[in-house]
Write a structure and sequence with these properties.
Blueprint: E1 2-8, E2 18-23, E3 33-40, H1 45-63, H2 69-90, E4 98-99, E5 101-107, E6 110-116, E7 120-124, E8 128-130, H3 137-143, H4 149-152, E9 174-179, E10 185-189, H5 191-194, H6 199-207, H7 212-225, E11 232-238
Helix pairs in contact: 1-2, 6-7
Length: 247
């Protein structure tokens, strides 16, 4: 798997609360791992939450005896939620902290991922597809027919999320699996990217770049040129698919 990951503080924030991780080496029972987290809370609580949740997921996956992506991710996310709540209760400076989370792996020709919150996972192939579902107030309004999908992008309540790591004792994740084919690219990002660049422009930038590092640099630059209103966290990965097995 080829990959590149990066965060950027953006142009408006004083603290970078986004945290990303990617490796093409095994982490416990998964052959590769990608994580994006967008922290929330006080001045330092958000960046602590995103980093601590990511480290907890990595630790859980490294040491688990559980098998199967869904069970492993559920165990790791529940542990991250418990630890964030415990830390927040033990330190007044961390009170109220939380984070979004997207965790993914590619095993042979299948992408497995789980998400909590409104950080996203896209699959870039012949077109751009958002595979994750936002856990946000605005997305709930769209699902219930209160507003149209094209009204959601710039809705004033867009940043209100309905699920987060650390928000309550029982965390509910969504889990997905998708078949990937040679040439597919996985994009995981925080809303500092998805809120600042239209999906079609994200697709154009990625497809028009020479390699993954250039694509990430161009995405961050465009998000900042469009206002850079939030931190930007990106993991971009191209799975190495065995075409003989991909039948």
């Amino acid at each position: 798997m080829h990959y590149f990951s990066q965060t950027d503080i953006g142009r408006k924030r004083e603290v970078n609360q986004d945290f990303v991780f990617a490796t093409d080496r095994p982490v416990g029972n998964v052959p590769n791992l990608m994580i994006v987290a967008d922290g929330m809370g006080g001045h330092k609580a958000g960046d602590y939450a995103s980093k601590y949740a990511t480290e907890t997921v990595i630790d859980s996956l490294t040491n688990t005896t559980t098998t199967g992506p869904q069970a492993m991710f559920e165990e790791a996310i529940k542990l991250a939620n418990e630890r964030i709540i415990e830390k927040a209760a033990s330190d007044v400076n961390l009170e109220g902290m939380g984070t979004t989370l997207v965790v993914a792996t590619v095993i042979e020709h299948t992408l497995y991922f789980a998400n909590v919150g409104d950080s996203r996972l896209y699959l870039i192939g012949d077109e751009i597809k958002q595979l994750s579902k936002d856990h946000s107030l605005v997305e709930e309004m769209v699902r219930l027919g209160g507003i149209k999908e094209d009204e959601a992008k710039h809705h004033p309540d867009k940043n209100i999320i309905t699920r987060a790591i650390g928000a309550k004792d029982d965390v509910e994740m969504d889990f997905f699996e998708y078949r990937v084919v040679p040439g597919d690219i996985v994009l995981m990002c925080t809303d500092g990217l998805s809120n600042m660049i239209e999906d079609d422009d994200i697709y154009r930038i990625i497809k028009g770049s020479r390699d993954l590092p250039e694509a990430v640099a161009r995405l961050i630059n465009q998000a900042n040129e469009n206002g850079g209103k939030d931190n930007i966290g990106i993991v971009l990965a191209e799975p190495c698919i065995d075409e003989e097995k991909n039948v």
